[in-house]
Write a structure and sequence with these properties.
Layout: H1 2-17, H2 38-54, H3 56-90, H4 92-100, H5 129-134, H6 137-157
């Protein structure tokens, strides 16, 4: 079960990274049309999946430490900083996006910017391997793979 959560989080991160154009435009395509922070949700899913894979008391200890830290400390700070920076860069367009797209719990419907508010946004941007690479996501995926192999080796050798 934990490995499935790890793989789902890794896939979400990869989907997001293949759409993300940092500091050049407001990304509203792919997973960004349903949630504002797919990379954070993907990372949280990877961490939760590994916590589940640890098993027993280790899982409980990791979850009791990880979940409150993420939701009470890490994410609120990142959300404030990122939202302020994006609002400075994109103004009312980002405010409209923030008001319609949830931060971490994906909406069922994709958000589309109004034609009047953002004619310059590429809401139909396709996933790109070059963007995936530019966002250094291959390194993250390889790190997850190494950890999964280490867990598998640990299980096989016990």
């Amino acid at each position: 079960m934990g490995a499935s959560v790890v793989l789902a989080g890794t896939a979400l991160r990869g989907w997001g990274a293949g759409h993300l154009v940092k500091n050049h435009s407001l990304t509203v395509s792919g997973p960004y049309s349903r949630l504002r922070h797919p990379l954070y949700l993907g990372t949280l899913s990877v961490a939760l999946g590994f916590a589940l894979m640890v098993g027993g008391a280790g899982t409980l200890i990791l979850l009791v430490g990880l979940v409150p830290w993420f939701f009470l400390r890490y994410f609120p700070r990142k959300e404030r900083r990122e939202s302020a920076r994006l609002e400075r860069l994109y103004g009312a367009v980002y405010a409209e996006y923030r008001n319609h797209v949830p931060p971490l719990l994906p909406s069922l419907a994709s958000w589309r910017p109004s034609a009047a508010s953002a004619p310059w946004l590429d809401a139909d941007r396709r996933w790109s391997g070059s963007r995936y690479s530019e966002n250094n996501e291959l390194g993250a995926a390889l790190g997850v793979l190494v950890c999964l192999i280490a867990f598998a080796w640990r299980v096989a050798s016990s």
